[in-house]
Amino acid sequence: MVRRLIGNLIRKKLGLSPAVALLGPRQAGKTTLAKTFSKTYFDLEQSEERLKLDLAWNDLLAAKELIVLDEVQAWPEILPRIRGAIDAHRKRQGRFLLTGSVAPGLMRGVSESLAGRLSICELAPLSLKEIPKESAEGKLWLRGGFPNGGILDARQFPSWQRDYLTLLAQRDLPIWGLPAKPQVTQRLFKMLAIHHGQVWNASEIGKSLGLSYHTVSSYLDYLQNAYLISSLQPYFRNLRKRITKRPKIYWQDSGLLHSLMGVTTPEALLSQPWVGASWEGWVIHQILFYLKARGEPFEAYYLRTGDGYELDLILFFSKGCWAFEIKLSTSPDPRDLKRLNTAADFIKADKRLLISKTKQTIQSKSSISTHLAGCIELLSK
Predict the structure, then answer these.
(1) Which residue, 172, 167, 211, 171, is CA-closest to 188?
(2) Domain map of the chain by residue range?
(3) Buried b (16+ CB within 10 A) or exposed e, 24-61
(4) CA pair distance 228, 281, nearest whole angstrom
(5) Which superfamily does CATH assign the domain made up of 7-122 to?
(6) Is the pLDDT of residue 237 over 90?
(7) Over residues 10-30, mean pLDDT
(8) What's the rounded Cα separation, in Å, for the pair 208 and 362?
(9) DSSP assignment, residue 74?
(10) DSSP code of 350?
(11) Is the pLDDT of residue 204 over 80?
């Protein structure tokens, strides 16, 4: 079994909180990981499991073992009972480990019933630090990080991704409240793949789907809460320049993006006109996934000015303000670093990182040219 980076964070939070929620996209490995913490496990999507839990509830509470409740959004009625059990013994920690495939924004019962009683961890698909290093980067970028999606068995890609998205459109998203018909959802998937890495334009996408921009924006919220899409907000604090003030949107998993775009081989990927946007989004998410797995609080933004300067990622975290430029190149141009430093000066960034596919790291006092693995290493220090 692959050792997940987030395991240490979960253990820490179980020691500090009566309940921990392990959230993330379907099939990211939540169930496998949760079962390593306790054998007292219930799959709440199965009616038989819900009945077993109901009948054994009092005995389970008396046994004082960690109780794992999988896919808790399928049975929100259990949340008030969890709250009651916690309130009866507020000083006991590590009592419940809940998993869910939607963010708290779609699990209203979590925020209403367990506020102040629950600590949240987010599990992403497999990342660069979690799989064997030999050729890991190219495989992860092409196939994405879902354990069953091809990173561990190449034969699964891209058919697994296509089936995954079809199931989400036809079953899961409607159950979670998305009012769109499955055909509309699948067309929206495609449109979001085409616009991956671009500034969000609800009117343009809505027009192509025959929907209002209000409707398309509400649909996007569902996809973000299902951990499919992420948005990177623009940074515009204390800047006197004309800047872009709309978010950029990305598919969180590159394998889903590439399956939607019909790309199945490294050669085909590198020949695409949008390959730079794919690489950019993948690198950004590898950085953010790593910080989340460590439990590192952060704020993430991008910057684009009216006169053509851009920062692909801005991080505010414990190490200060870091500015990133991401280039799909094996030999980055010194002019790229110069433009990075100029843009980073606008926000007074403490460090400026040019991330490319170079094999070496070149570092000055505040400017660094390196590869993704080198960037992750810097974040870990």
Answers:
(1) 211
(2) 7-122
(3) bbbbbbbbebbbebeebbbbbeeeebbeebeeeeeebb
(4) 13
(5) P-loop containing nucleotide triphosphate hydrolases (3.40.50.300)
(6) no
(7) 96
(8) 45
(9) G
(10) S
(11) yes
Angle at 150 between CA 145 and CA 154, to 5 degrees: 140
Q: What span, in angstroms and rounded, lies between the C-alpha atoms of 343 and 325?
A: 10
pLDDT for position 135: 67
Mean pLDDT of the chain: 94
What gap in Å lies between CA 25 and CA 138, rounded to an integer? 22
In the numeric block, which tokens belong to residue 211?
Answer: 């929907």
Chain centroid offset of residue 128 CA: 14
Closest by Cα among 351, 283, 303 to 323: 351
Mean pLDDT of 197-224: 96
Phi-psi group of 71: left, alpha or beta (phi > 0 → left; psi -120 to 50 → alpha; rest → beta): left
Closest CA to 303 of 274, 348, 344, 272: 344
183's CB contacts (< 8 A; 6+ apart) are none
pLDDT digits (tens, 9 = 90+) for 250-301: 999 999 999 999 999 999 999 999 999 999 999 999 999 999 999 999 999 9
* C-alpha pair distances (Å), 172 with each of 16, 121, 157, 211: 32, 21, 21, 22
